[in-house]
Amino acid sequence: MKTSLFIIISAILLIKIITRVETGSQQVDQLTGVQLYTKYCLTCHQADGNGVRGMFPPLAGNAKITGPSTDIIRIVLFGLEGPITVNERDYNQPMPPQGYLNDNQIADILCYVRSNWGNMAQPVTADEVAKARKLGKLTN
User: What is the CATH number of the domain that holds 61?
Assistant: First the structure.
């Protein structure tokens, strides 16, 4: 019985260690990222990151997600309007701005999105989000 309890506790601690990603002095908890994604993003972009065909673009395999972090940070902060093409499919639903989320929340969500569903991109830090927020919405 004691051995089983030890194995269970060890497994829980190991899972907790594995789910943490270290980014410089900031630690981003992947569990927090998935929780925030579930609360704020899942309805449109779905649990598997594939979105809803013709309505909401996929995050899985999306070059904007794995490209420069400033692009996706700005989209989350300030929203996106107008037609876009993702993975050879057209979308034209506006994404509302999520600027009500704090810098850490946005960083956690983007770290989760940029490291799941086959995406392999550098983590996003709260400092990067704060810098983009301070610059404000750019106009074309």
Answer: 1.10.760.10
Q: Whole-angstrom Cα distance, residue 128 to residue 68?
A: 11
Two tokens at 116? 């799941």
- The rounded distance, in Å, linking the Cα atoms of 21 and 33 is 11
Q: Into how many domains does the chain fold?
A: 1
Tell whether 6 is covered by a domain: no
pLDDT digits (tens, 9 = 90+) for 34-91: 999 999 999 999 999 999 999 999 999 999 999 999 999 999 999 999 999 999 999 9
Contact between 108 and 32 (Cβ < 8 Å)? yes
**Helix H or strand E encompassing 26:** strand 26-29
Distance CA 95, CA 58 (A): 13
Which structural domain range is residue 72 located in? 21-135
Cβ-proximal residues to 84 (8 Å cutoff; 6+ apart), any chain: 57, 90, 91, 92
Write down the residue that tokens 């993975």 correspond to: 87
* Exposed / middle / buried, residue 47 (Cβ in 10 Å: 0-12, 13-18, 19+): exposed
